[in-house]
Amino acid sequence: MTFFNKKSETFLYEYLNNTSPTGFESEGQKLWLRYLKPYIDEWHLDNYGTAYAVINPGKKYKVVIEGHADEISWFVNYISDKGYISVIRNGGSDHLIAPSMRVTIHTEKGPVKGVFGWPAIHTRNGKEAEITPNMDNIFIDVGANDKKDVEAMGIHPGCVITYDDGLTMINNTYYTGRALDNRIGGFCIAEVARLLKEQKKKLPFTLYIVNSVQEEIGLKGAEMIANTIMPDIAIITDVCHDTNTPLVTTKKKVTWHVAKDLY
């Protein structure tokens, strides 16, 4: 039996390639719900933006399967007189990988393309050769002459920024891309709904399929929807770290920085 079909794959690419930064998940939620609707009994959207579907409503025992809809990103924080843009994090974005990454700055006038700049190795001498990216020295260049040019594009402090990096399959083996954390989880729980419907499975409980928002800044949407649904059990999907690659020491204890007080 084949569990993954062409419709699933089309949805996977559409959903993963859509931008849904923390706090700006609405378009991704629309995509997710549109795919789910043929397979569910009802759907809801809470005041915070978390979308959830319901299968077999009305049963006393309630089960949740959950993923989160948001992705890490950046915010415009400061625009210099020369038109260079400094940023702050929206979630756990890694400043070390930022240099040379192409980005989209989302504005009310539409998307603006840019790139994280970094001095070429030929220009770094002596102590300058030892500099590494940090939050004080990374910057975005949008090809502007000055601050007025940047502002004319619709860019201002508070605009959200995402990487231009779509979903790709490498060597027909595994996927790589910008927002696998955790829209791959949202994809998986949507597939549960599809398979239950297509295989005509009857559940003895009510199943809530939850795509929560603002996980990357502290489980905000999940906390709120848990108080709404109050499930008897919840199965949470998310990505984890690969410990088989170079530079990862498996003997060391993993430190959880987000919501560590919940474990």
> How does the major sheet shape up?
6 strands, antiparallel, barrel
Task: Name the CATH superfamily classification of the largest domain.
Answer: Zn peptidases
Task: Please report which band the strand proportion falls in: under 5%, 5-15%, 15-25%, 25-35%, 35-45% or over 45%.
Answer: 25-35%
pLDDT below 50 for ≥5 consecutive residues: which ranges? 258-263
Summary tags:
263 residues; 2 domains; six-stranded antiparallel barrel; alpha+beta; Elongation Factor Tu (Ef-tu), domain 3; Aminopeptidase
What do you see in this structure?
The protein is 22% helix and 26% strand. The protein has helices at residues 6-17, 26-36, 147-152, 180-198, 220-229; strands at residues 42-45, 51-55, 62-68, 73-79, 84-90, 102-107, 110-117, 139-141, 160-163, 168-170, 174-176, 206-212, 233-236. A hairpin with a 2-residue loop joins strand 6 and strand 7 (110-117). Helix 1 (6-17) runs antiparallel to helix 4 (180-198).
